[in-house]
Amino acid sequence: MYALSKRLTDAYSRRFARAVRETYREDEAYASTPLGRLALWAFLLLLLLLPFLLGPYPMYVATLVAIGALSALGLHLLVGGAGQISLGHAAFMGVGAYAASHLFGPLAPLGILLGGLIAALLGLVLALPSLRIKGVYLAIATLAFQFLADYVFKNWEAVTGGIRGRTLPPPQVLGLSLDTPERLWYLVLLFALPLFFYGKRLLMTRAGRAFNAVRDNDLSARVAGVDLTRVKLFAFALSAFYAGVAGGLLAQLYKAVTPEYFPLSVSIQYLAMVIVGGAGTVLGAVLGAFFVLLIPEVLNSFVGALGPEYAATLAAWRNVAFGLLILLFLILEPLGLVGLWGRIRNYFRTWPLPY
Predict the structure, then answer these.
(1) How far is residue 110's CA from residue 101's CA, in Å, rounded to a whole number?
(2) Is residue 126 situated within a structural domain?
(3) Beta-carbon neighbour count of residue 125 at 10 Å?
(4) Which residue ranges run through the membrane (predicted)?
(5) Residue 319: pLDDT band by 50, 70, 90 thresholds?
(6) Residues 114 and 101 sit within 8 Å (Cβ to Cβ)
(7) Separation in Å, CA 242 to CA 31, 92, 266
(8) In the chain, fewer beta carbons within 10 Å around the N or the C end?
(9) What are the residues facing 176 on neighbouring strands?
(10) Reduced to 3 DSSP states, what percent helix, strand and coil does the chain have, rounded to the nearest 5?
(11) What is the 3-state secondary structure (H, E, C) of 175-198?
């Protein structure tokens, strides 16, 4: 009886349990169980049907959050994956946005891809200081790049349009004008889904383990045979590519590009997404983007509902409330939203017999 029970339990675990992995291929799979694959396909179907379920403004916010999550994932791969700090993420988004603004209409998808590639090349240049410095010194180096990029955005008028910026016509795909957030959503999915799957797969492979080794202790990683130069260059280039693509998509959403879209505060905002979401997983970047981008929209709606006579008074307090929410969350949940989600998932996974 015991042998039969053990055999049935093992068979159930191999088929349905997430903790059991028999091969490296199963360990690197996006969903290694039937229930996981069903949930994944259901989620992808929901993404495709989302424009038919939401109105124009909620769809605009959803598109904005998806673009923000893509950019946050790029910074997560650099900070949470390879342990390299960066305060110039918004500059890479600006590079991608300005590059994409020169290829519009039917060439818009090519412009978005080109913006990501140009940002990746600049990421390789910015990665050079990381080979000699780290920590706060690396943060200062990336901060200098942010200030330099902001100066270029405002003064290189032949390329960026200066302070006035550049305007874009709606992108076109197969003759269809993507002039609404509902239609632009599918262009965002065209870039976001492959990049999200690649980012998740990367962290589960040998390259991802090299990232984690450099993050935890670069000297020990070097002794173990990890090529620090290659890992750091690749991490910066990949992070910049994600930011450049997200910047190009953001330009298509706003239909304009100005230097005010990519200041230092945006870089800090994306760093907050990684910290609030929880560095170490792709899910953390997504949850952090949801929290940081959705909470201001909720506060805006709350202030607007109180009436115009209170809007001016409460506008400044909205930012104070947002900052307090982040501080309170980090104090109560230092592991981020991923840690909170993990405890909730583990509770229901063992309920009603937690022991």
Answers:
(1) 11
(2) yes
(3) 13
(4) 35-54, 60-79, 110-128, 135-153, 183-199, 231-250, 270-295, 316-341
(5) low
(6) no
(7) 23, 9, 15
(8) C
(9) 173
(10) 80, 0, 20
(11) CEECCCHHHHHHHHHHHHHHHHHH
3-state SS of 92-129 is HHHHHHHHHCCCCHHHHHHHHHHHHHHHHHHHHHHHHH
Residue 61, domain extent: 54-262
Return the bridge partners of 257, or none. 166
pTM, two decimal places? 0.85
Q: Which two tokens stand for residue 148?
A: 């330099």
Biggest distance spanned by C-alpha atoms of the chain: 80
User: Cα(355)–Cα(353) distance, rounded to whole angstroms?
Assistant: 5
Q: Which of 63, 78, 80 is nearest to 187 (CA)?
A: 63
**Count of structural domains within the chain:** 1
Q: Is residue 49 part of a domain?
A: no
Of the candidate ranges 15-24, 133-142, 163-172, 284-293, the one whose mean pLDDT is the lowest: 15-24
Spell out the alpha helix ranges (H) of 204-281.
206-216, 218-223, 228-254, 264-277
Q: What is the pLDDT of residues 200-253, one digit of tens each?
A: 888 888 888 888 888 888 888 888 888 888 888 999 999 999 999 999 999 999
Q: How confident is the model at residue 49 (pLDDT cuts 50, 70, 90)?
A: very high
Judged by DSSP in three states, 55 sits in coil
Q: Which residues face 242 on adjacent strands? A: none
Q: What sign results for the dihedral spanned by CA atoms 161, 165, 170, 174?
A: positive
Q: Could you tell me if residue 136 is inside a domain?
A: yes
DSSP string covering 127-171: HGGGGT--THHHHHHHHHHHHHHHHHHHH-HHHH-GGG-EE-PPP
What pLDDT is attached to residue 340? 78
Q: Which residue has the tokens 């992995």?
A: 21
Q: Assign 352 a pLDDT band (cuts: 50, 70, 90).
A: low
Each residue's pLDDT tens digit, 70-124:
999 999 989 888 888 888 899 999 999 999 998 888 888 999 999 999 999 999 9
**Helices and strands: H and E segment counts in the chain:** 16, 4
For β-strands 256-257 and 172-173, DSSP reports them as unpaired
